[in-house]
Structure formats: C-alpha cells, structure tokens
Amino acid sequence: MKLLTALLSGVVFGLGLIVAGMANPAKVLGFLDVAGAWDPSLALVMAGAIAVGLVSFRVLQQRKTSLLQCPMQLPTATQLTPRLIGGSLLFGIGWGLAGICPGPGLVLLGTGAWQGVVFVAAMVTGMLAFSVIERMRTA
Description:
By secondary structure, the protein is mainly alpha-helical. It is built from six helices and no strands. It has helices at 2-20, 25-32, 41-60, 82-98, 102-111, 114-138.
C-alpha cells in the first residue's frame, strides 16, 4: 500500500508540475527574468504551494503518525547556518541558469527530454561529490 501511495503521489506531483508549466525551462526562466520579459504566472503556483504547505505542516505537527501509520519526521532545525545559506545559493544559481529544479528535472527525464538527462546527470554528480566531501570532512 505504501509503494502504491508513493507512486500515485509522484504521478500527481509530476502531472501538477506539467500543468503548472514548471517542467518547461523557458517558462521558469521567464519567471526568473524580473529585469526583462518577466512572466509572473508561476508566482501563483508558488503561492498555492506555500498555502498548501503552511496548512499541511500545521495539521501534521499535531500527528504522531501519517495516514499510512508511518512515523512523522518533520524538520526541527530552526537556525540559519552557513551550510544552509551556501546550499540555498548554489541551488538558486543552478535553478536560475538551467530553469530546472529537481522535481521538474525528473519529469523531464521521464519524458526523455535531453535537458532532463543532462540535469539529472549533473544532480547525481553533485550528490556524489557531496557524499565524498562529507566523508573526507568527517574522517
């Protein structure tokens, strides 16, 4: 049941990204181009996601388990650290350059688009590099 729920959630999420235009790098770059031909349509997508997230987190904070009886694992960190700020900057720069973030990148990969292949390959490379750096840092 958990795997089926995860699959259905992923399909709904991917379809939502496609319908919202988030899987179209040109549309995302148009949204990020505030000094040029700015396309504000994705601001509504973000506002909707923030609203759903705020309500969901408030409700979920009161629960000990999910609807599938899995333990709730909500984030507890509240401090801004240099690592968090640096990672956020790196993520934002990559999103601004490519017009793709991880969710839409996986959608593009699933459609066979070359941008998705390149993005996911770069993302996996970054994840592997992080793992190597972390192992070296803690050794």
